[in-house]
Write a structure and sequence with these properties.
Blueprint lengths: L1 E3 L2 E3 L5 E11 L8 E9 L3 E6 L5 H8 L2 H4 L4 E8 L2 E2 L12 E4 L12 H11 L4 H14 L15 H13 L5 E5 L7 H18 L2 E5 L3 H4 L5 E6 L2 E6 L1 H8 L4 H9 L8 H8 L20 E12 L2 E12 L3 E5 L6 H8 L7 E6 L10 E4 L12 H12 L5 H8 L14 H13 L5 E5 L7 H15 L4 E5 L3 H7 L2 E6 L2 E6 L1 H5 L8 H6 L6 H10 L38
Parallel strand pairs: 5-10, 5-11, 8-9, 9-10, 15-19, 15-20, 17-18, 18-19
Antiparallel strand pairs: 1-2, 3-4, 3-6, 6-7, 11-12, 13-14, 13-16, 20-21
Helix pairs in contact: 3-4, 3-5, 9-19, 12-14, 13-14
């Protein structure tokens, strides 16, 4: 496979998907979402579609199964061939036997109530024989470790469980092409790794083509073999993942570290980073963060909360609190009770025992406590972003400045847009803005980085730090380990409805085999961010790596003059790591 201009040329074999000079503009949009795109995706490949929020990733994926333009409308030229079928001539239902799609809002795709029935539904529509249907359902339940959810109602599933069931329902009919839009955004780290490993096995062993749009590159970089980098107003960058991410300036935290310290090429995976750091990496311990001593007052607290859904108990006597100045990261596997705890703290879920206090009384949603849910669409109802925030300000009497709020979140240019016309990441930021506009001192965010590109995450992190400096606090339920490591003042870990650990990010995440950030995996507990590691390496006097051998770190040759001595290249001459 080679890239040439904006065309990706196959060296051999037929493409699973071929875009031929495709240009598409959504109704009412001024610029195309896809502009003169020509690309061929190899059959039996694991393809990553990457780019900034709003760059066209979802449009690219939806064009493969004909949702663009059959469902979306808009101006369309060129053609897309999916398994040699022209998507303009075939409605999405006519492609259902060869291509399956899991959207960002996975729960919106459910049709029936019971998990096992949901997996069987698409097989029934395709007329699959009952004996074959039973076997495929069982195999898919085993593939994604869903046996324990077989008899559950989809309405009782957590966000991450919904994602896994939606992926299973898409896989059950045995498609030749599987399209996934942000498939790990609500999965815990272990669940995400299990799903990606299962997909990789299907690519390698069965030869299906998987196309995945994803922002959490630390999760997918080690699994994919082709990358498509999209950028508004520019031709796509297509080729090997390392080359595409290098060209676009993207990549997981280990890649960012590589660029900061001069590793060439920058690593894509933790294993690559370990090899490049070598045994000569400094053994100093990172300074551990401590809880701020000047947290002034409690904003909301739960004591001995017992809560659940029907006969199922989710929280078992949980104590939790949020004080002004804090950013608390609530973490744990899917279904552990994170969302339920946030809803209890916000006064939106009735609990069976215990009590919640918010500033001296029961929590009042939108006044003392405000919650931004996993599905931001549920709190967006106005015809424009300006009207959305204006309605909140009018209802609460808050004096928050709309322009300043949207500028700090990086979405001021969306002021006149309809929220439903925005990308998932943009809708999330608008929902966060609408919740913040209430002025409630305790801000609760459920999966606030879902659908956000790295630049948007940085803006959100900066905004939240600024927000808590004004006698306010933030609690986030998240599976985004890297975001929690960067921003949290403390981490609360939940398992089985109980709090099993609480402390600083370094203390709770640093030595976890599942939740440790990439820097801790490379350099050991206490290391949290690439910038922290790069600063420590520079302070320790470690020189840039020997690029000829990628030989890890070497101290400057002290015999040379000044402080900018070149590394002693003889010291690492035999190290091929």
């Amino acid at each position: 496979m080679t890239s040439k201009g904006n065309a990706f040329v196959l060296r051999s074999g037929r493409p699973a998907v071929a875009f031929e000079s495709v240009t598409f503009t959504y109704p009412g949009a001024e610029t195309p979402a896809i502009d003169d795109l020509t690309v061929a995706l190899p059959e039996g490949s694991f393809v990553l579609v990457t780019g900034a929020t709003g760059s066209g990733k979802s449009t690219f994926i939806r064009a493969i199964n004909g949702l663009v333009p059959h469902f979306s409308g808009g101006e369309y030229s060129g053609r897309v061939l999916t398994q040699s079928r022209n998507t303009l001539e075939c409605a999405p239902r006519d492609l259902a036997d060869v291509v399956a799609f899991v959207p960002q809002d996975s729960a919106a795709a459910f049709v029936v109530d019971r998990v096992e029935d949901e997996l069987a539904y698409s097989l029934e529509n395709l007329g699959v024989d009952r004996s074959v249907m039973r076997r495929r359902v069982e195999e898919t339940l085993d593939l994604l470790n869903l046996e324990s959810l077989r008899d559950r109602s989809v309405r009782t599933l957590s966000g991450g469980e919904c994602q896994r069931v939606a992926i299973a329902a898409a896989l059950a009919p045995g498609p030749r092409i599987l399209l996934l839009d942000e498939p790990t955004s609500q999965l815990d780290p272990q669940g995400a790794e299990d799903v990606l490993a299962a997909l990789q096995r299907l690519v390698h062993d069965i030869g299906i083509t998987v196309v995945i749009a994803e922002h959490r590159l630390e999760r997918v970089a080690g699994f994919v073999d082709v990358a498509v980098g999209l950028e508004p107003g520019a031709p796509p960058n297509i080729g090997e993942p390392a080359a595409v991410l290098a060209a676009t300036g993207g990549g997981p935290p280990v890649t960012r570290l590589g660029r900061l310290v001069g590793w060439d090429p920058a690593p894509l995976t933790v294993r690559d980073a370990r090899r490049m750091a070598g045994s000569k990496a400094p053994a100093a311990t990172s300074p551990r963060r401590s809880r701020l001593a000047d947290f002034r007052r409690p904003l909301v607290s739960a004591r001995r909360i017992v809560a659940g859904y029907g006969e199922r108990t989710v929280l078992k006597g949980v104590d939790a609190s949020l004080a002004s100045g804090e950013i608390v990261a609530l973490m744990g596997r899917n279904g552990a009770g994170k969302t339920t705890l946030l809803r209890c703290l916000a006064g939106l879920h009735r609990f069976g025992a215990g009590e919640v206090d918010a500033d001296g009384g029961p929590p009042v949603a939108g006044r003392s406590v405000a919650l931004c849910p996993q599905r931001p669409e549920s709190v967006l109802f106005a015809d424009s972003v300006a009207d959305e925030l204006g309605a909140t300000l009018k209802a609460t009497g808050s004096r928050v400045s709309i322009d300043e709020l949207l500028t700090s979140l990086g979405i001021v240019e969306l002021l006149d847009h309809h929220p439903r016309d925005l990308s998932a990441g943009q809708r999330l930021l608008v929902a966060v803005g609408a919740i913040v506009a209430t002025g409630a001192p305790a801000l609760l965010l459920d999966e606030p980085t879902r659908g956000l590109d790295p630049a948007s995450k940085r803006r959100l992190a900066s905004f939240l730090r600024s927000w808590v400096s004004g006698e306010r606090g933030v609690m986030i339920a998240t599976h985004d380990v890297e975001f929690a490591a960067e921003i949290a003042t403390s981490v609360v870990m939940i398992a089985g409805g109980e709090i099993i650990a609480e402390g600083t990010p370094a203390e709770v995440l640093g030595d976890s085999p599942v939740f440790a950030p990439q820097m801790a995996r490379v350099f050991g507990p206490g290391w949290l961010t690439p910038e922290q590691v790069a600063g420590a390496l520079a302070a320790a006097g470690w020189a840039r790596p020997d690029r000829r051998a990628n030989a890890g770190w070497a101290r400057p040759d002290r015999r040379a003059n000044a402080g900018r001595a070149r590394p002693d290249r003889r010291a690492n001459a035999g190290d091929d790591s």
